[in-house]
Amino acid sequence: MAIIELDNVSKVFPRAHRGAAPVSAVEDVTLHVEEGQIAGVIGYSGAGKSTLVRLVNGLEKTTSGTVTVAGTTITGLPERRLRQVRLGIGMIFQQFNLLSSRTVWGNIAYPLQIAKVPKAKHRERISELLHFVGLADKAHSYPDQLSGGQKQRVGIARALATSPKVLLADEATSALDPETTRDVLRLLKKVNAELGVTTVVITHEMEVVRTIADRVVVMERGRVVEDGSAFDVFAHPQHATTKRFVGTLVADVPTGAALESLRANHTGRLVTLSFRDDSLPQSEAFAELIAGGIGFELVHGGMEDVQGRSFGNLTLALRGRDSAIDLALIRLRAKVPTTEVG
Ligand SMILES: Nc1ncnc2c1ncn2[C@@H]1O[C@H](COP(=O)(O)OP(=O)(O)OP(=O)(O)O)[C@@H](O)[C@H]1O
Questions:
Q1: Distance (Å, whole) CA 270 – CA 255
Q2: Which pLDDT tens digit goes with each residue over 38-78?
Q3: Where's the ABC transporter domain (predicted)?
Q4: Which of 32, 162, 235, 326 has its CA 20 to 30 A from that of 217?
Q5: Whole-angstrom distance, CA of residue 110 vs CA of residue 168
């Protein structure tokens, strides 16, 4: 069941000043996020990602189309009702947005106060949240006494205070180093797995998507240009923008300068084998080459793992009689996508 439904949603910002054009930030987006899913929305700066999440929590109004969250259509709702809906949607931010004058405890108490949760219930809830995010010993610290990773843990605890069904993370790890990023993403996975919170992660980093997302949505100029399971998007990217993002992590069939460099540094015929989890295992492909009396060396690429499934493009320099290589390639092509690159 979809818990977030955007149907033909567009958002046009009016022109900022006379002579400027209106900005079409989100254009005709239809996107249904299933309950329990972790959806990664990736795109370059200005693609419309932040606007999209702000439409989901009603901080921006749609120009056209409808947004429904947990069964409530929020399009056209008055602010008073929207505030209620927002209690069911947690949000975390790149800059954490903590109140610097309040302790960790006070920051987590804040949404409980807004939601008018009786004070008698605060202690148990806050203490539970602090344990959940691993900050039980920091309750009385102020934000500027915490590391970036700890601040984001507070952000997550605060976002979860009112037990939302949906969590929106807008570049939540972009200000963190790689190791802290992994810790925070691990915590977000725990939120999803243990609390069943549907999560939308907005990012411009493919590594974030690979680590956490079940599903990948690629945005460009306000539009969704690709949408699929994380494995499919990584293993078979279709759109040029998706290919560029995937290319930041996964070696592709070499072209351009990479190919020139391989040609200059290796003798023999260069062939890329594109392994997927439903294609021939590597060991059998290599056995085929050995059986044909062909020598080979791995010169480019590697295998990747997404959601426990492996794939990758391995470029080999092959040495042997041309006729033997031709025969082996015919055999291989029937079982694994094979590209002779030079
Ligand atoms: N309040 C606003 N008024 C006018 N234009 C806006 C407003 N908010 C966003 N935009 C414009 O809408 C487009 C999409 O912006 P948005 O912030 O949603 O993109 P993004 O993918 O999140 O990029 P970034 O990662 O840089 O924030 C941009 O051209 C931006 O300048």
A1: 11
A2: 999 999 999 999 999 999 999 999 999 999 999 999 999 99
A3: 4-246
A4: 162
A5: 18
Question: Hey, what amino acid is at 238?
Answer: Q
> Three-state SS for 9?
strand
Final residue before a domain boundary, out of 228, 247, 266: 247
* Predicted complex ipTM: 0.96
Question: For the chain, where are the alpha helices, taking DSSP H only?
Answer: 49-56, 79-86, 104-114, 122-132, 148-160, 178-195, 206-212, 230-235, 240-247, 256-265, 282-291, 322-333
- Asked if residue 228 and residue 326 are part of one domain, the reply reads no
Domain co-membership, 262 together with 217: no
| Total count of domains within the chain | 2
Domain end among 198, 226, 247 = 247
Tokens of 276: 């997927």
- The pTM (predicted TM-score) of the whole model is 0.89
Q: 94 CB under 6 A from ligand 1? A: no
Q: Please list, residue by residue across 120-130, b when 16 or more beta carbons sit within 10 angstroms of its beta carbon and e when fewer do.
A: eebeebbeebb
Burial per residue of 282-301, b for 16 or more beta-carbon CB atoms within 10 angstroms, e otherwise: beebbebbeebebebeebbb
Is 12 near ligand 1, meaning CB less than 6 Å away? no
Domain of residue 288, CATH code: 3.30.70.260
Joined tokens for residue 335 = 């079982």
Cα 70 from Cα 52, distance rounded (Å): 17
Tell me: the pLDDT tens digits for 149-185? 999 999 999 999 999 999 999 999 999 999 999 999 9
Residue partners of 323: CB distance under 8 A and separation at least 6: none
* Domain extent for 144: 2-247
DSSP string, 286-340: HHHHHHTT-EEEEEEEEEEEETTEEEEEEEEEEES-HHHHHHHHHHHHTTS-EEE
Best residue for ligand 1 mutational test, from 12, 26, 49, 95 (most atoms within 8 Å of Cβ)? 49
Taking the C-alpha atoms of residue 19 and residue 34, their distance in angstroms, rounded to an integer, is: 42
Residue 188 burial (CB count, 10 A): 24
Give the Å distance between the CA of 42 and the centre of ligand 1.
14
